[in-house]
Automatic annotation (TrEMBL):
InterPro entries: Dimeric_a/b-barrel (IPR011008), DUF1330 (IPR010753)
Taxonomy, superkingdom: Bacteria
Name of the protein this chain belongs to: DUF1330 domain-containing protein
Membrane-spanning residues: none
Pfam families associated with the record: DUF1330
Residue ranges occupied by any DUF1330 domain in the UniProt entry: 2-95
Length: 95
């Protein structure tokens, strides 16, 4: 069953670190089978109205998404990000 990696960026504290992360993370995620479905600021918000950067990535399974996150290539991207952003990542199984 498919799974979705959802990342929400509450705050970007260092644009250079975020750029370094993105340069490494995108290829690492795609190499692990991730497909970027959405990325950016919301076009419309409701309820809490948070205009935070959101990224939605599809994987074939929760195991594939978890393996992507735990891979050496993605861990290298996380090291490049360091304290450059405050964010939350969730992996959710599809329905």
């Amino acid at each position: 069953m498919s799974a979705y990696w959802i990342a929400e960026y509450d705050e970007v504290t260092d644009d250079a670190k975020l750029a370094a992360y993105a340069a490494l993370a995108g290829p690492a995620i795609q190499a692990a089978g991730g497909r970027f479905l959405a990325r950016g600021l919301p076009e419309q918000t409701y309820e809490a109205g948070q205009t935070t950067r959101t990224v939605l990535i599809e994987f074939d399974s929760v195991a594939a998404a978890t393996a992507a996150h735990d891979s050496p290539a993605y861990q290298e991207a996380l090291a490049a990000l360091g304290d450059g952003a405050v964010r939350d990542i969730r992996i959710v199984e599809g329905v």
